[in-house]
Write a structure and sequence with these properties.
The structure is a single chain. It contains five helices and five strands. It starts with 5 loop residues before the first helix and ends with a strand. Helix content is 44%, strand content 19%.
């Protein structure tokens, strides 16, 4: 959108937002989506914060979380384990100790107590498969692999 004609910019943003929600059936969802999209477009479209009119039509800031780009240095342990899965780390079965070491090599140190529930959630979501293996010197341990 051009910056020199604010009225034309608003009209263009409204038209684009209307087109974006035109095929939605649920009226409440359609209105809310329109507000969010319009706010995002009016704020420049590249900012993480847009403006949405609430029920009294006053403008209120609405935080729109940015999607964490791979390698951007953002994201917690869940995102980092997901990155390992996307990169094919779990092609072969890996123990929680292998996961911790891979993250440590990448500069991210997490205790086993932090990684364990993350791996269980990934298993429940069927991102990873969990099986039990007997390893010499460690006894029975869980290993994780791609589903």
């Amino acid at each position: 959108m051009k910056q020199n004609n604010p009225i034309a910019n608003i009209r263009a943003a409204r038209k684009k937002a209307e087109e974006s929600v035109s095929d939605m059936q649920d009226q409440k969802l359609k209105e809310k989506a329109f507000e969010v999209i319009l706010g995002h477009l009016l704020s420049g479209g590249g900012s993480n914060v847009g403006f949405v009119a609430n029920s009294t039509h006053k403008k209120q800031a609405l935080a729109v979380p940015a999607r964490t780009a791979k390698g951007s240095g953002k994201g917690g342990p869940t995102e980092r384990v997901s990155d390992l899965a996307r990169e094919g780390f779990f092609k072969n079965a890996k123990s929680i100790f292998d996961v911790r070491e891979a993250l440590r090599v990448a500069g991210h140190s997490y205790p086993i107590t932090t990684l364990s529930p993350i791996l269980v959630r990934q298993t429940r979501r069927r991102v990873l498969r969990r099986t039990q293996e007997v390893r010499k010197g460690k006894g029975k341990i869980f290993v994780y692999s791609n589903w």
